[in-house]
Specification:
23 strands; globular; 6-stranded mixed β-sheet; Rossmann fold; 4 domains; alpha/beta; 37 helices; Taq DNA Polymerase, Chain T, domain 4; Nucleotidyltransferase, domain 5
């Protein structure tokens, strides 16, 4: 037995297992996923690290000394979910029955207990292994102390800490003090991340020297550092692991106990851990020993195959490089015989319109994949198959609509293959969208999905291509390394599909959204992106010059209002003038304690003072100029002469599409300058721009969901909803409503959709808060169905942790049960809005499906070119204008039947602004 101490951060792994592993349940429905993960991890650790002593350490209940130092410590964390809390006591019982010494010490955290034991072990000459996923414990690493993260198989010794964080273990506390710890709600220096922290510590040696010489740091980072100087000592105390905790027993009493197999049998039976039950029975003379699955510790933490699903067990990998015609022919045969083909492309660019193929990877069975290099171009590269000939061989399979394909973000691969004259068809599944449907609030990249669902640490792109200025193109990567990376992509993606899709199938609403909305939309978005939008670049350049002149004029006015010249782009100079020289009231402060000059503050000050309004106007013009009038002309594709945005389906948690490179969804429509930019989006000669926009869609959804009689009646009668609301709330005839009364009603109608409070309404209408509250009270008195709906929705969200759209999309609200009042209230507001905004997102997606199907089936040449919130934009041949104008509202309003009629308004013009 090795003279070693094995310490496990049980609390850290319990939380991680709960969020990472499937929702495993016993026969009677008791949640057991987190228990299963921790028990599996403890079994594996005991086997892999035989030691003389060990302990599994958990946080004790109650406050710790850090809460006394800083009341906001961990304040943002939501309360422990009920399903997790219920697993703690039986897990402790199982840990003890397995022979692990169990430690919990009141008033401190598990980290502090671990830190104290590690230092005591060092003093006794014992080697220590700490199993944790907590980066804070890197400060404990020494020649005799190592960390292992059993979720990722990462082992950190002294050199490993230096390589991962850029500082040695002795510098971790200083590093964490600077960057902060979002998990524990410990602020660092504002906008200082790991790179800056490492740079400063390398230059100055340690935090104390940096603090002493803070005046030498230039720029915004230096200003932020100096503002944080008073806070940094507290931050350092909070992130420092305590190593002198008074422990209830010495290390010598942490020797392993004998397993209580009878107790384990009872626990495994009670919680339906069938594999372990068989193994333990066998070990005690019962049934034949169940075969243990080989593999990494992280994979072993997953539930066994007979507990949950096949791909939870480790998978033997068999990856192949296809360098000759025989190998390619053999794999084409596999692909043709398979029910589902997983494919991925490796390319020269992230720009889908510009990217060229470097290689492709395929998988049809878990653990088995192949990489087909086609255009690697480094010195000494082995002979590769001809790109043109190979694509010709693969084209029938790739274009076969009957051959089902799966991938991760296949829309990108569709574009890449289009660049080579191949039209990818048969796209049936996409793991990016599967993840988005199941957990919209999580990350959906393949590396994160593999860690979260397969407990696999994948090869990162930077590991094969480098990063920063030294990054190479994938065509320069050695083919052997490229195979490991690319084949893994296809293999992991297929395994993810087999994990994720069955979970979608189990929830009918999610399955409906996935199969009838998101997957059918993918090829339509790809076509829209490929089509692009024609742009009048000369108009934008002229507008950019105009904006520049207007900015100079505003700058002169601002300096005159300030009584001196200053840099309008400098928050520090602006703050000095606003709050020191002009003595304007301080609305709020930055985390560093300085008066804030953000947009919210300036908007409030602009109600009473001229300079803040000038600054806001200047910033608005500067954003338009830098984001659109300067940038858009440079983004015109030289081949197509059009701008090609990318629509992302898996970004906004509400289900809305997002647009990027360029973002076409945030061009202001309420200012003349913004509308001028929209004039630059034009039609080809002989065509017109047609805009079809859902009218007041979220209010109509509110009427449907709430079932409020007054709202339903107003929409069914096609009344002016804001005038109708004003009449109801004011108790006056519809005809007597004034413009001001309508404006207030409109603010309330839209504000309540977003959960606006009386405080927010008062600020928007510039009225006293009591006046705003009285208006809201009268609104709910006249629309009781809306009030009932909001309360029902809040309660539903608190009960199940999510709300749903009309079509079954789930919108998760992790902080709805949180202890932080502000965050919880924000989640409650989101709960009210999310079903409406999410249903509106579903409706516009269904409208895109219906419109595209109509255009295709009718043989029309009109093309969808943009989708912006509740609006579809088309480029229509003049000869088809009458058909489009008549057909678009019909198709858009026919996608769903609500309790109120849907309404779509159509506009036509030579450019987007004229049509809007």
């Amino acid at each position: 037995m090795t003279q070693m101490l094995l310490l496990v951060d049980g609390s850290s792994y319990l939380y991680r297992a709960f969020h990472a592993l499937p929702d495993l349940r016993s026969k009677d429905g008791f949640p057991t996923g987190a228990m299963h993960g921790v028990i599996a991890m403890l079994k594996r650790l005991r086997k892999d690290y035989p030691s003389a002593y060990g302990a599994c350490v958990f946080d004790a209940k109650g406050r710790t000394f850090r809460d006394d130092w800083y009341p906001e410590y961990k304040a943002q964390r939501p309360p422990m979910p009920d399903d997790l809390a219920r697993q703690i006591e039986p897990l402790h019982e199982a840990v003890a029955a397995m022979g692990w010494p169990l430690l919990m010490v009141g008033g401190v955290e598990a980290d502090d207990v671990i830190g104290t034991l590690a230092r005591q072990a060092e003093a006794k000459g014992l080697e220590t292994i700490i199993s944790t996923g907590d980066k804070d414990l890197a400060q404990l690493v020494s020649p005799g102390v190592r960390l292992i993260n059993t979720m990722s198989n990462e082992v950190l010794d002294v050199a490993g800490v230096q390589a991962k964080f850029g500082v040695p273990p002795s510098g971790i506390v200083d590093y964490l003090t600077l960057v902060g710890d979002a998990v524990d709600n410990v602020p660092g220096v504002d906008k200082v991340g790991p790179k800056t922290a490492v740079k400063w510590l390398a230059e100055f040696g340690d935090l104390d020297t940096l603090i002493t010489r803070a005046g030498e740091i230039k720029g915004v980072a230096g200003e932020n550092l100096r503002r944080a100087l008073d806070w940094l000592p507290t931050a350092r105390r909070l992130v420092t692991v305590k190593t002198d905790v008074v422990l209830p027993l010495p290390i010598t009493e942490l020797a392993w106990r004998e397993e209580d197999r009878e107790r384990l049998l009872a626990l495994y039976e009670r919680y339906s851990f069938r594999t372990w039950l068989r193994e333990t029975k066998s070990e005690t003379g019962g049934a034949e020993t169940a075969r243990r699955n080989p593999g990494s510790l992280s994979a072993d933490m997953a539930p066994r195959s007979d507990d949950i699903h096949p791909d939870a067990t480790p998978v033997e990998r068999r990856y192949e490089t296809l360098l000759d015609a025989d190998a390619l022919g053999r794999w084409i045969g596999k692909l043709e015989a398979a029910e589902l083909v997983c494919l991925d492309t490796e390319t020269t660019s992230l720009d889908p319109m510009q990217a060229r193929l470097v290689g492709m990877s395929f998988s049809v069975e878990s653990g088995e994949a192949a990489y087909l290099p086609l255009a690697h171009a480094y010195t000494g590269v082995p002979a590769q198959l001809s790109l043109a000939d190979t694509l010709a061989s693969l084209k029938p399979l790739l274009e076969d609509t009957g051959k089902a394909k799966v991938g991760q973000n296949l829309k990108y691969d569709w574009h890449v293959l289009q660049n080579h004259g191949v039209n990818l068809r048969g796209i049936v599944h996409d793991t990016l969208l599967q993840s988005y449907i199941l957990e919209a609030h999580e990350r959906h990249d393949m590396d994160s999905l593999a860690a979260r669902h397969l407990h696999e640490t994948t090869i990162k792109y930077e590991e094969v291509c480098g990063k920063g200025a030294g990054q190479i193109g994938f065509d320069q990567v050695d083919i052997e390394r490229a195979t490991r990376y690319a084949a893994e992509d296809a293999d992991i993606t297929l395994r993810l599909h087999r994990d994720l899709y069955p979970r979608i199938e189990q929830a009918s609403g999610l399955d409906h959204v996935y199969r009838t909305i998101e997957m059918p939309l993918l090829p339509i978005l790809a076509r829209m992106e490929r089509t692009g939008v024609k742009l009048d670049a000369d108009l934008l350049r002229r507008h950019s010059d105009t904006l520049g002149r207007e900015m100079l004029a505003l700058e002169e006015k601002a300096c005159a209002a300030a009584g001196q010249p200053f840099n309008l782009n400098s928050p520090k100079q602006l703050g000095e003038i606003l709050f020191n020289q002009l003595q304007l009231p301080v609305v709020k402060k930055t985390p560093g304690g300085a008066p804030s000059t953000d947009e919210e503050v300036l908007e409030k000050l602009a109600l009473d003072y001229p300079l803040p309004r000038l600054i806001l106007d200047y910033r608005g013009l500067a954003k338009l100029k830098s984001t659109y009038t300067d940038k858009l002309p440079a983004m015109v594709n030289p081949v197509t002469g059009r701008v090609h945005t990318t629509y992302s389906q898996a970004v906004a948690v509400t289900g809305r599409l997002s647009s990027n490179d360029p973002n076409l969804q945030n061009i202001p429509v309420r200012t003349p300058e913004g509308r001028k930019i929209r004039e630059a989006f034009i039609a080809e000669p002989g065509h017109v721009i047609v805009s079809a926009d859902y009218s007041q869609i979220e209010l109509r959804i509110m009427a449907h969901l709430s079932g409020d009689a007054s709202l339903l009646r107003a929409f069914q009668e096609d009344a002016d909803i804001h005038r109708a609301t004003a009449a109801e709330v004011q108790g006056i005839p519809f005809e007597q409503v004034t413009a001001e009364q309508r404006r207030m009603a409109k603010a309330v109608n839209f504000g309540l959709i977003y959960g606006m409070s009386a405080f927010g309404l008062a600020a928007q209408l510039n009225v006293d808060r009591t006046v705003a509250q009285a208006y809201i009270d009268r609104y709910f008195a006249r629309y009781p169905g809306v009030a009932d709906y909001m309360e029902r929705t809040r309660e539903q969200a608190r009960h199940q942790g999510y709300v749903e759209t009309l079509f079954g999309r789930r919108l998760y609200l992790p902080e709805i049960r949180g202890g932080n009042v502000a965050r919880r209230q924000g989640a409650e507001r989101a709960a009210i809005n999310a079903p409406m905004q999410g249903t509106a997102a579903d409706l516009i997606k269904l409208a895109m499906l219906a419109v595209q199907d109509w255009l295709d089936s009718a043989g029309m040449r009109s093309r969808l070119i943009m989708q912006v919130h509740d609006e579809l934009v088309l480029e229509v041949p003049e000869a088809e204008l009458d058909r489009a104008r008549a057909g678009l509202p019909e198709k858009m309003c026919g996608v769903a039947e609500l309790k109120v009629p849907l309404k779509a308004e159509v506009g036509v013009g030579p450019n987007w602004e004229a049509a809007h």
